[in-house]
Amino acid sequence: MDTQTLSAHQRLIESTKDVSHRLETSHHLDPLMDRIGDSRFVLLGEASHGTHEYYTWRTAITQRLIEEKGFSFVAVEGDWPDCYRLNRFVKGYKDSGLTEEEVLRQFDRWPTWMWANWEVAALLQWMKDYNNNVIKNRKVGFYGLDVYSLGESLEAILQYLDKEDPQIAKETRKVMECFESYGGTEGQAYAMATRLVPKACEKEVVKMLADITSHISSYDSDPEMVFSTGQNAKVAVNAERYYRAMVGSGPESWNIRDRHMAETLDDLMEFHGKDSTKCVIWEHNTHIGDARATPMARSGMVNVGQLVREKYGEEDVVLVGFGSYKGSVIAGRSWGAPMEEMTVPEAPEGSWEYLLHSMNEENRLLIFDPDKNKELMSQRLNHRAIGVIYSPGADRYSNYVPSRIPQRYDAFLYIDETEAVHPLHLKANSKEMPDTYPWNL
After folding, report:
1. Which CDD domains match (predicted)?
2. Is 336 left (phi over 0), alpha (psi -120 to 50) or beta?
3. pLDDT digits over 308-359, tens only?
4. Which pLDDT belongs to residue 279?
5. For a tag site, which of 18, 107, 324, 405 has the least CB within 10 Å?
């Protein structure tokens, strides 16, 4: 570094030290618990989809939020049908599975390792044990917010309606027939088949949602299963829109997906009683970190963190980012490729991770305060973001999102060196098109 650059770097280090706390055990999360206070929305990020420490620290935070602050459910960047099975398992529903491993092994959509891993199994075991010791209306749930599960959601709807409403089930089968005429309910086939047919099955899924919505109050079943059926119908509508938009360019498909996740969160809050409910959300940093503090905003993109802040107010929302300097990660070389453990190289000079590493090689928790972060508030630093597709050799030249960190997050967990998550599956099953993260647009 030249003298001028070194001086600026040192000022940033000093500014960061002012808001830095030790991070070794769950007791060191006390400053974060104080920052959260009575907030009802805590969004926990991750800088990759395959890092052990991101899962374990999110679990530690989640446990404290549930035990100490009465949080009601966990919502994740996962598909509704798969995660709803986990929800029924941790709440002890009849015939919901004998072990967390048994239920997690049903995640067969690539990238399987995101949720079918031993770290999540540990969280589910803890949640089930916790729920066994509380009354029914205090049991903590586990839900998926994502939009990818077009086929699975339609199948879940039919399975339910065949018992509850055979006439609507008959109409719903017409939706399946429409998708079959365009290559089926797998997103890639449908997206490619509809390039020259702008509307495709849009009318059919919208009608299905309207039919289910108009009849749902009369269904004689457990309330949560009724709610789940309605959510699967909304997934089908938005998945159809998402996959059609995916073949085009621009931010539309990203925005459809993140708006769907934010709307699903709203529905969950309403279902649980929005005035008294608190929730914790697990998603990638690019979803939970406010998009307005990154180039995403200039591209016309929004994300969950921004949408939740705008709707519920910044005083009720806490965004927590994660990152590391080096380590290992589970990812694939291309979409659908076998999962493998890869090296995450040292972060390059000029990045947020390099800055934190240069302070000292220790894990730390940062709690941002605009009054103490005037130097940092105006700085745009590169911040690493690894998706399910990764090339360590290109890390220095890609996989970084320029960010005003204290505006993007309210707090940040820095792990100097990380290790890969531990998947349950030996092989990944590829069915869908890749997610389009902002740094690949």
Report:
1. Ere-like
2. left
3. 999 999 999 999 999 999 999 999 999 889 999 999 999 999 999 999 999 8
4. 98
5. 18
Tokens linked to 107: 């995640």
Q: What is the H or E stretch that residue 30 is in?
A: helix 30-36
Give the Cα separation of 424 and 283 in Å (integer): 20
What are the beta bridge partners of residue 423?
117
Nearest in space to 157 (alpha carbons), one of 209, 221, 201: 209
User: How far is residue 319's CA from residue 303's CA, in Å, rounded to a whole number?
Assistant: 12
Count of CB atoms within 10 A of residue 314's CB? 13
What is the Cα Rg of the chain in Å? Answer: 22
User: What is the rounded distance in angstroms from the CA atom of residue 29 to the CA atom of residue 35?
Assistant: 10
Other Cβ atoms closer than 10 A to 187? 22
Intra-chain end-to-end CA distance of the chain, in Å: 31
Q: Are strands 279-282 and 20-22 parallel, antiparallel or unpaired?
A: unpaired
Query: Would you list the domain boundaries of the chain?
Result: 1-77+278-441, 149-277
Helix or strand (DSSP H, E) at 382? strand 381-384
Distance CA 165, CA 218 (A): 10
Residue type, 414: Y
